[in-house]
Amino acid sequence: MGTNEKEKYMLILDALTDALGRSEDQSVEEIKDELREEGVDVDSALNRLKKIQQSISMEAKRSALDFAMEKRLEFEKKRPDILDKFIGWTREQLLERFNELIQLSDFDVGMAHRDLESKETEDIRSILEDLELAYYRQKLEKDRDDE
To answer: How confident is the model at residue 110 (pLDDT cuts 50, 70, 90)?
Structure first.
């Protein structure tokens, strides 16, 4: 986004802000009409603002996912044994360990109510690996806090 575009957006935002500031007793349509009188293409401006908001929201989500992936990779390096730990386990063993971890941890209670019966054994193994890594991370953080 070039400087001229940024200035244009700032002018539009200023006009919108001014109109909203004066709009306490006005309807939405009255506000839009007032903005149009000031030369603002309201529909176009709203569409651009929505697209910018969506872009910012998506970037924030991508950033959060990237951060989560970094953390997971970091803990996988610290505890590579967790990833291969459940190979060969039966479905019943996986479910039993899943329930043990829920009871041992401070995880959200909602996790305990997942419908694991509808999941394939591979999916349960993957979820259990995630839980084990999260439990390990939780223990590390708790140990740091206790020091």
So the answer is: low
